[in-house]
Amino acid sequence: MTDGTTTAPAAEAGDTLTRLEQEGEIAADYLEGLLDIADLDGDIDMDVEADRAAVSIISDSGSRDLQKLVGRDGEVLEALQELTRLAVHRETGDRSRLMLDIAGYRAQKRAELSEIGAKAAAEAKSSGEPVKLKPMTPFERKVVHDAVKSAGLRSESEGEEPQRFVVVLPA
Question: Are 46 and 28 in contact (CB under 8 A)?
Answer without folding.
Answer: yes
